[in-house]
Design a protein that fits this description.
single chain, 254 residues, alpha/beta, Rossmann fold, seven-stranded parallel β-sheet, 14% strand, globular
Length: 254
């Protein structure tokens, strides 16, 4: 196990869910945190909760390539040498048959789940290579392994995250920069609230009758990946609740 004390960790989607949980566990491990999300107020709440002196907040839409580029270029010197990038920002919109899909939903998922990840990674990885160290963690999903009905485009974006992680690892071969894809199943976060556009009753049904993963469960796995000895690369982790076996197989207690 290696220490990440004083390493600079950039976390996207840090205002809630898995991103906020990562902020908590990495702060406890002594890392310096760059927390990225669109909601400045939520970021400030997380920073206050952490009570952690080494936190830099960036209110940023990762889908905006020019904003990503200019924001990263303007990072103050103490924050510019990013050691660990956690590409956590992502979402799902709707649960429709392909032929009934909403174009705006598709574009939002592709922009956030793919383009945002691509932009951050493209701008940060060259610095990691030049410094001779770094780790990229991409948040995928079991949806990228097991397509489910009405999940078409969301599943496609998460399958793409898995392929991008594999391709990035191949392109970085010969450098010390490591790449991990962490692909969780059912995690109780705001995910279903976002998917169903605030329909709380429908969102609750997703988790009824079983014990889902928590954001902290996933954050612990991410911390495990980045604290392995430098000769060890955890390329892919597929994790699910004990009550889940695939995208559509659940043990629900009624």
């Amino acid at each position: 196990m290696i220490s990440i004390q004083d390493q600079i960790v950039l976390i996207t989607g840090a205002s809630s869910g898995i991103g906020a949980a990562c902020a908590r566990v990495f702060a406890q491990a002594g890392a310096k945190l760059i927390l990225v999300a669109r909601r400045q107020e939520r970021l400030e709440q997380i920073a206050e909760e952490l009570g952690h002196s080494s936190v830099h907040l960036l209110a940023l839409d990762v889908c905006d390539r020019s904003a990503v580029e200019s924001t990263l270029e303007k990072l103050p010197e103490p924050w510019s040498a990013i050691d660990i990038l956690i590409n956590n920002a992502g979402l799902s919109r709707g649960l429709n048959k392909f032929q009934e899909g909403d174009f705006q939903d598709w574009e939002e998922m592709i922009d956030t789940n793919l383009k945002g990840l691509l932009y951050l990674t493209r701008y940060i990885v060259p610095g990691m290579i030049s410094r001779g160290k770094g780790h990229i963690v991409n948040l995928g999903s079991t949806a990228g392994h097991y397509t489910y009905p009405n999940g078409n485009v969301y599943c496609a974006t998460k399958a793409a995250v898995r392929v991008i992680s594999e391709g990035l690892k191949q392109d970085l071969l010969g450098t010390p920069v490591r790449v991990s894809s962490v692909d969780p199943g059912l995690v109780e976060t705001e995910f279903s609230q976002v998917r169903f556009r605030g329909d709380g009753d429908r969102a609750k049904k997703v988790y009824q009758g079983l014990t889902p993963l928590t954001p902290a469960d996933v954050a612990d796995v991410i911390l495990f990946c980045v604290t392995r000895p430098l000769h060890v690369n955890v390329s892919e982790v597929l994790l699910m609740p004990t009550d889940q076996a695939g995208s559509m197989l659940f043990n629900r207690q009624t």
